[in-house]
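TA notes. Do not distribute before section.
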Amino acid sequence: MAHKSKKKKQKLLLNSDPEPSGIHGQQKIGKKEYEAELFKLQVELVKLQDWVKATNARIVFLFEGRDAAGKGGIIKRIMERVSPRIFRVVALPTPTERQKTQLHAQRYIEQLPAGGEIVIFDRSWYNRSGVEFVMGFCTQEEHREFLRDCPAFETFLVSQGIILLKYWLEVSIKEQHKRFLERIKDPSKCWKLSPMDLESHRRWYDYSRARDAMLAATDTKAAPWYIVPSDDKKRSRLNCIAHILRSIPYEEVPYKPPKLPPRQKAKGYVEPTRMHRTIPQLW
């Protein structure tokens, strides 16, 4: 009887529905599998970094999307194992009064990469077509001018040899709501909810219309948009980083492991007996 019961339990487990990820009902990726795949991609990012340094390439990754879409999570995983001297994240604050009188793209142009650099924009000049437009920080005419001129601006960047990759993270209305609630409850994440974020929750459809207009006007052959389904955070990170690596014709730069030189002789040096302040050893 016990043997039959065990078989029945196993059958129930096998027939039970896997936990869906929120994207086409796929099963969630296990932590070990996710970390193993992420590590492989991060190793490739290091190879990309070496190639960029060796060839003086200039690359821009541009991440846009609604609040809580997962931009920060992808950027964090890109940056985990690379040098901040080569990979640089740009997340500009609200423009100053002086910057408000400049050309809209001017403060972003200042952040573009020099040779041997990769710049990651955590939001970009597309603020003009998103939060600025929806929240009334720019006029209807300024918005129209941006959508008209942006393709020409980006075509110019590409013509000058900059590799430009634009990613829109697409989060569902249900998942965004869930993430906002999590941020409210989590004391380590509550700082992520600004009054602007709360307003974006209310104005979901205003932002939808702004997104649609932006994609229609600025998804060009020279600088296309790539949509990243982001309800499943793990899959979105893996898929986006994999796409970045496939989109850049980098080659592995031969690596010659250095030899550690022998340490110098002490020549009479003795560690001082005086103890300085040491932090409390709580763990």
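Switch to the second chain here.
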Amino acid sequence: MNLRSRFVLIFIAAIVVSSPLVAQAPQPGAPPAAAAPAQQGGTPADRAAAAAAAMKAPFVPFHIIGNIYYVGSTGIACYVITTPAGDVLLDTGYADMAPQIEQNIKTLGFKLSDIKILINSHAHTDHGGGLAELKSATGAQLIAMAQDVPYLESGGHNDVLFHDQNLFPPVKVDRVIHDGDTVTLGGVTLKAYLTAGHTPGTTTWTTTTEEKGKSYNVVFLGSVVAVPTNKLFDKPDSPATYPGIKSDFDHAFAVVKALPCDVFLASNGAFFDMQKKHDALINGADPNPFIDPAGYQAYVARSEANYQKIVQSQQGTDAPTSHTP
């Protein structure tokens, strides 16, 4: 099994472990291809391809809450955040998903030219692969966390985990940001938190939104998924995936556990049970099912428990901890 196929299967398994529903029937917004990719037969490469296809499967775009809209696929979450001065697009999915994301934006009644700013959760092909196309189509400014800029601008070259296995069209970053920086457009402010580990620049974004006269804290969780192929400890015969990765993951969990969260959103739909909440929302659920502070804390707890299992499996009794960058 090549590195790419192995990682796809491991990552899908990690999503299942940390997600609210371990198994889930196809939902009304999603096509049958989205159901249970792990049950597909064939070679590991075939299963990896099927899993990726299920993640890319189209999903009907919809209004989530306040000024936030879902324009992603069945598995890959992408968002439009509207403002009086234009809109922000968070994540774009794979490169070949770009036409799908563009059509989703139009289906909701927005123009591509309405998108003024592009932001990203992390520099992997499944979340930033379409940035180059969307930047060209919209003319928007791309803003990204400093530690992920080299990977966005090289199209994933020398990725700390994938190496050159998952390349995507490179894209120029217009504004480089750092932990705690903000992005403001039309009176709407998003704050960027460096929650590294999954990538060196993984970013969790927060904002506030209003609905029915109430204000809500929104968290767009970047990704705090650790996988067994992450090497967390720097050992002579097996160096860490990148220097400081364990310290980064530890910091990321400390940050996300402390964030005030009313509306739980994330970089993958399965992380926040998107399909189930979508179905409840369109069936008139009140209050809005995406208002889910308990679900946020539960997801973070599951993810941290999974991470700690990987730590315990790798550290041994005398293993040194990875050094900070």
